[in-house]
Amino acid sequence: MTENETTTVDTTAPTEKEQRKEIRSLTWRGLLLQGAFNYERFQNLGFWWILRPLLDRLYPDEPSRAAAYRRHLAYFNTHPWTLGPITGIVATMERRRASGDEAVSDEAITSVKVGLMAPLAGIGDSLVFGTIRPIFSAVCAALAVNGNPLGPILFVLGLFAIQMGMRLWGTSIGYRTGMRFLDRLGGSELDRLKEGATVVGLAVTGALVATLLTVTTPFVYENGDASISLQDQLDTVLPAMIPLAATLGVFWLVRKRVALWLVLVGTVVVGVVAGYFGILA
């Protein structure tokens, strides 16, 4: 861009036709959410790629566009089938921010993403992996065992049709509801929404630490004729105390800007050494 060029942003509300086009674009691009999955920030590159055409249109000047890119390159992880409401709402919020709405801040956009991605991931896991896929697998496997070629075909096409329906419907609901919802919100209401979404995200993070990080100690000490398990004593004080301590330790190292590869290697070394000597299990 030359110095004589001017940057303009179209702040007018999109027409119905433009909305449908944008919803379809977000839905189709969402199929590649996990195309650049990584173990540092998980689906962040995929989420950024979904929004990139919209961000390029909303922020033609390079500094604002770079800031928008950075917003969506942070950690992100949810179930791909239930991604739609998040992309729809975030797209609406980005439009409002680009139009000059000061109530829609970086923190508000990030908090809404964090607050929605974990609950929707839980819904997607239970609905898709716990309900839809097992039912389809049972029906289609029965067809295939009896020599019916429709079994595998129905499995692939049926799941794809359900997936696309969920994605398109979710994106549309998030996009259209987000437009009306944000219209009714003022600055204070949006602040409360941001705080609520942050609390939900932190609560879900705490629950994941307690349920998924299974670190215990097998250490047992003798008190007279009784054998007392140290893990049982810790659980009476605070269940999942060791996973919590490990998580807070890693969080402290990250806040101190220790290189992530060092944190990862250190965690592996500590786990192997502590497991070898029977300190942790």
In a nutshell, what does this entry contain?
With 281 residues, this protein is mainly α.
Largest sheet composition: 2 strands, antiparallel
Which segments are poorly predicted (pLDDT under 50) over 5 or more consecutive residues?
A: 1-8
The termini sit apart by 59 Å
Helices and strands, in N-to-C order? HHHHHHHEEHHH
Report strand %.
Answer: under 5%
The number of helical segments is: 10
Anisotropy-based shape = globular
Strand order of the largest sheet: 1-2
Description of the molecule:
A two-stranded antiparallel ribbon has the order 1-2. Mean pLDDT is 80; it is low at 1-8. Helix content is 69%, strand content 3%. It has helices at 16-29, 44-58, 62-71, 84-98, 106-145, 150-184, 187-212, 230-237, 241-255, 260-276; strands spanning 220-223, 226-229. Strand 1 and strand 2 form a beta hairpin. With 281 residues, the chain is mostly helical. It has 10 helices and 2 strands; from the N terminus they run αααααααββααα.
